[in-house]
Structure formats: C-alpha cells, structure tokens
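hey so u asked for the seq, here:
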Amino acid sequence: MSPSLSQGKLYIVGIGPGGIEHLTKKAEKVLLASEYVIGNGTYLDQIAPVIKDIKRIRSGMGGEVERAKKAVELSSEHVVSIVSGGDANVYGMAGLVLEVVQKEGNIDVEIIPGVTAVSAAASLLGAPIVTDFAVISLSDLLTPVEMIEKRFKSAAEADFVIAIYNPKSRNRRENFGRAIEIIRKYRNDDTPAGIVKSATREGETVIVTTLGKIMEHNDIVDMSTLVLIGNSESRLWNNMIITPRGYQRKYEY
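ran it, structure tokens below
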C-alpha cells in the first residue's frame, strides 16, 4: 500500500506573460484558494491585484531550489501555490518542484498551465510560429554553452522557426550575437525576425526586422525580451511576420 497523501495541496501555477488579463481563470481560482503563494518577487508583483491578502513568500533569481523546498514543506499541511512566469513547463518551476516532491514527500500536486512568452510574443508579431518551431534558451547557468550552440546549429539547419528565450543578461552579453551568427550560416539575411520586449506588460516594445538587421537592435535585447527568427518560407507583410503552414501547397485562396 502506498503512503497516504498529505492533507495539503501544492499547485504549480503558470501565471502567463505578465499582463493580469492573460492569467487563466483556473490559475486565478487556485491562487485565491491558496493559503500561501510562493514565487520570484517580480511574478508576485504581477499578480498582486489577484492574491491581495494571501500570505506571500518572496525570493529572487537564483533562489529556485529553496523556493521549491519551502513549497513542498508547507504543502504537507497547507494549500500552497508556487508560481512561474508564462507556463511552469517552459523554463519554469514544474520540473524542479516535482524532483523535490519525488525526494521529500508524497504530496498532492497539480500543475496549472499558463500562456507562454513565445505565444504572447508571436501574437504581437503576427503569425510566425504556426508550423514547427524550436524554443531555445540562451541562459548558460544550467546548460553548457557548447550544448546551446549545438542546438542552435541543429535547429537552424533543420529550418525550424526559432524562438530565443533569455537572449542576454548583464553578465552574459555575447551569446546572443553568437547565436545570430550561427543562424545566419543557414538562413538568408532577409529572413523575417521579431523582437518583443515585456510582452503584455508596461513598456511593451515590438520590433519587426530581418535576420541581417537584427543586431542593429542589440541594445534593446535583455532578459525580458523574446526573439523570433522565421524559417525559409516566412515573409513580412504589413509590419507582421507570416510563416505559411503549407495550405498554399494544397489549396487556392
């Protein structure tokens, strides 16, 4: 017989790209049902109008492990939500939290999906990811640079639309340019490209450009930015990016 579950509950909640209107109804419901909400301070501030008087436990970047352990500990007796920006399965807390649960206790866990940054950015750029696309993070805190570069090479060579998360930070300023160099070996310079900073949030900035000109906007790129590079069929129209899915090869319209 397996051990009984705790009396508490742990929700791993994707809160969306930042604008409170993009928080799902299910996410709002479980947050309001929680006794504690745990998360990075930036994300807690984004959902502050929702969680109001609920107890909050804040931490900064780099505190993910302790955050996950605290959430698991509290959820043995309390209803707890630990939050991730976007979706908890896309560079979020879902994997780490489940690893901690596996080691430390038989906790009742539910993962609540959220709108991802790539979805939010794509909606502002038109229709850039309606076909196969690859999502690659340029953060080398947990992944070796050599592995990241190999992934960019493979994705570019296979003609995936490429979405770049975490393109540049204060201490990591050269990786973005290197990634663009790799992609340019396999794509024409007139390939459509998009830069979206602070999608759905204050300070939202959307730039539609091309692969050959994207480094002209290098100064705007930071950790709050998502970059999209089209594939060989992507095209520009009306300051938007359209990537055909393939209907044009079968139908007339």
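The domain at 118-242 is CATH 3.30.950.10 (Methyltransferase, Cobalt-precorrin-4 Transmethylase; Domain 2). The first strand starts at residue 9 and ends at 14.
lmk if thats what u needed
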